[in-house]
Specification:
- By secondary structure, the protein is an alpha+beta fold.
- Helices cover 33% and strands 27% of the residues.
């Protein structure tokens, strides 16, 4: 696995407890994001290192840079249709492009002048943005907010074929770590190393309502 991991308990003490944060594993080249699919789509993506086959570029696909947020949504890979968990090494400049283009999935009166303006922005956007409560390994809500991004139209076509450096099938890793959660042995739980990602564009930082601490 080309993902760096560390004990959950050791990371927890360094993570922000509240606020809006893009928790992710990243470097100068890439940002790791996660998706879960049924085997037909997930195995094709891993084997071909791109999306195709049963994957549709005509419907929005959502990516999550936060591992535990993905585990909450897919039930640690146990939900039907989400058995194959993919770690996607997305080009960093692409992730930044998504953030710069993102339009909120719900009306924000401190950003958009009117609901009509927001609705126009949504129609024209290729990237959708949503903040939700983050979750701990057991699926319990936290005060910290977690981000997910929806990709569609021209961006999803580029995502499927051009914008990804590597696709890893981490389903076995997820199953192994899930056992520690089921046994309430969080001292043994390994997860990808994550820290807050800061966009290079200051205006994007403000629009995303990211926290400074």
């Amino acid at each position: 696995m080309n993902i760096k991991t560390k004990l959950y308990k050791d990371q927890l003490k360094d993570w922000p407890e509240t606020g809006h944060h893009i928790m992710a594993q990243f470097d100068d080249e890439k940002v790791i994001v996660y998706q879960s699919y049924r085997p037909e789509i997930g195995k094709f993506a891993f084997q071909n290192q791109c999306f195709g086959g049963a994957f549709s570029v005509h419907r929005m696909t959502w990516i999550k840079p936060n591992f535990l947020w993905m585990m909450y949504r897919n039930g640690w890979g146990t939900k039907v249709g989400q058995e194959i968990v993919l770690a996607i090494h997305l080009k960093r400049e692409v992730f930044e492009r998504y953030l710069n283009q993102a339009v909120y999935s719900s009306f924000q009166d401190d950003i958009y002048e009117s609901k009509e303006d927001w609705q126009v922005a949504v129609k024209q956007s290729n990237i959708r943005l949503q903040w939700d409560p983050d979750h701990d390994p057991f699926g319990d809500k936290l005060d910290r907010r977690a981000i997910q991004l929806g990709i569609r139209n021209q961006e999803i076509v580029k995502y499927a074929k051009e914008d990804i450096l590597e696709i890893e099938d981490i389903s076995d890793f997820v199953k192994e770590q899930h056992q520690f959660v089921l046994k309430n042995e969080l001292d043994k739980l390994l997860i990808p190393i994550e820290k807050p990602f800061i966009p290079s564009d200051r205006q994007t930082f403000k629009l995303l309502k990211l926290s400074d601490d």
